[in-house]
Backbone:
């Protein structure tokens, strides 16, 4: 083994302009992340880094002042991965806070804080986490993350649309869009620039530095409403499957380069392994699922709401793919944890947009994949203590829904609960009560709450109760919004379905 060190250039500037992060906590460790980028929006996507590798040192300590360092090492940042590093730290004690920092050349990064999970199966009285999604940079400021950083949390879960491949309308007052971010991202340079644009935001950096994160993607990390090898309705030439696979490979690589993900999540060409489980003592198990890579293309069109789409019920349609579905069902059935948390992307609850007797349903969500929904919810129903709680992004709306075992059967029992968290910024300022929200509530008795403001969901759980607080900000097109709790709902142990607190 060579012990060569690769020195940082003396005129590097601030290599930590994209921040630092940690994630994927286990009882004995976490993965740390940073990407050296002194000029984050450099049009070539290399962040202002030279072609050479650079050695990045890291330290993990029990205290903020690094008096008691418990792990240190170095990683080599190379151009092949955009000068990102992902050191995996093992040998830490369970269920406690640690502090970490990096050094490149003579520059020391800010200090991050992270936390290991309780030992597998160990008695764990309580945990708190937040979940977030959908942060179109051009749609608004990341004010919600300023407030999230001030919360008392053990974990942050991100459910996708961390970037958007397109800028759409620039709704941020006072902001401007550099020319290299005007076009839709279709290659590695384009996706790197989208991540750099998001990661350069100070509120997002602060939230990463404060807590470990567990991250997945949805569609906009690649292309609107993509499904396996089928692109959405974006740039035409990418509708050729081989070109779309190249596009996915670029998008997945850029995601890995910018997230605190373990080596197991390093993409191999147009494939990345994102369905994974993280335990939290005897209290909770987080199962992150992937509803994009293995799905059958949307039924009856591109995923928009359609009437009378019989294809939704086809037994061979899948949103998970057979291998992931079996893995999920086995895991749910075999887990001894009190709460099964499903980190999901698109809505699982039936959401009828027709005010009358007809069903007007979006087929990009689980409404387009009835067979898989019935399998998952059937598993929840069959468990003795079936505390399945699904957390969902995608909608840019807050809502609460009871999940029924089979929506085609009248009086089918409630077997699980879904909390959908709104966007951080996508959709702009939003509104509390909307006509669309009223209509959705009227047409769907199992949907109990609807709100279209921006924010995140905060969750506190113990062995008796799960509580979700919907934290919202009144505007995002200018900075500085305050935060309030718009509504709170609870689920009791052994009683699926939510009740307003
Ligand atoms: Fe979104």
Residues:
């Amino acid at each position: 083994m060579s012990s060569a060190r690769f020195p940082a250039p003396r005129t590097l500037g601030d290599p930590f302009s994209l921040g630092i992060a940690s994630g994927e906590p286990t009882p004995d460790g976490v993965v740390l992340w940073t990407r050296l980028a002194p000029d984050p929006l450099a049009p070539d996507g290399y962040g202002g880094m030279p072609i050479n590798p650079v050695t990045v040192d890291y330290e993990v300590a029990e205290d903020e002042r690094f008096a008691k360092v418990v792990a240190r090492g170095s990683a080599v940042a190379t151009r092949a991965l955009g000068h990102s590093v992902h050191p995996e730290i093992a040998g830490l004690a369970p269920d406690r806070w640690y502090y970490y920092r990096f050094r490149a050349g003579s520059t020391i990064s800010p200090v991050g804080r992270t936390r290991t999970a309780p030992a597998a199966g160990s008695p764990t009285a309580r945990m708190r986490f937040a979940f977030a999604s959908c942060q179109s940079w051009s749609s608004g400021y990341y004010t919600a993350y300023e407030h999230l950083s001030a919360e008392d949390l053990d974990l942050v879960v991100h459910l996708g649309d961390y970037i958007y491949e397109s800028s759409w309308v620039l709704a941020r007052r006072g902001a401007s869009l550099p020319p290299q971010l005007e076009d839709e991202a279709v290659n590695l340079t384009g996706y790197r620039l989208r991540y750099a644009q998001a990661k350069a935001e100070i509120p997002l950096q602060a939230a990463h530095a404060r807590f470990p994160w567990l991250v997945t993607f949805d569609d906009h990390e690649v292309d609107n409403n993509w499904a396996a090898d089928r692109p959405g309705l974006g740039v035409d030439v990418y509708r050729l499957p081989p070109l779309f696979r190249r596009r996915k490979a670029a998008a997945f690589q850029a995601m890995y380069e910018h997230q605190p993900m373990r080596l197991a999540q390093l993409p191999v060409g147009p494939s990345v392994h994102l369905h994974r489980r993280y335990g939290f003592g005897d209290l909770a198990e987080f199962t992150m699922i992937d509803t994009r890579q293995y799905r059958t293309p949307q039924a009856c069109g591109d995923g928009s709401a359609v009437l009378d789409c019989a294809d939704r019920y086809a037994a061979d349609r899948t949103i998970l793919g057979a291998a992931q579905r079996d893995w999920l069902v086995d895991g749910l059935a075999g887990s001894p944890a009190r709460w099964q948390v499903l980190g999901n992307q698109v809505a699982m609850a039936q959401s009828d947009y027709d005010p009358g007797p007809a069903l007007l349903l979006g087929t990009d969500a689980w409404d387009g994949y009835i067979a898989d929904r019935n399998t998952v919810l059937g598993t929840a129903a069959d468990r003795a203590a079936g505390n399945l709680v699904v957390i969902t992004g995608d909608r840019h709306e807050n809502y609460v829904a009871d999940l029924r075992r089979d929506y085609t059967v009248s009086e089918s029992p409630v077997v699980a609960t879904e909390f959908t968290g709104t966007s951080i910024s996508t959709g702009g300022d939003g509104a509390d009560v909307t006509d669309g929200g009223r209509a959705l509530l009227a047409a769907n008795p199992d949907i109990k709450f609807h709100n279209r403001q921006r924010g995140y969901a905060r969750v506190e759980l113990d062995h008796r109760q799960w509580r979700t607080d919907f934290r919202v900000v009144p505007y995002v097109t200018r900075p500085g919004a305050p935060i309030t709790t718009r509504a709170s709902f609870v689920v009791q142990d052994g009683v699926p379905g939510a009740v307003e607190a």
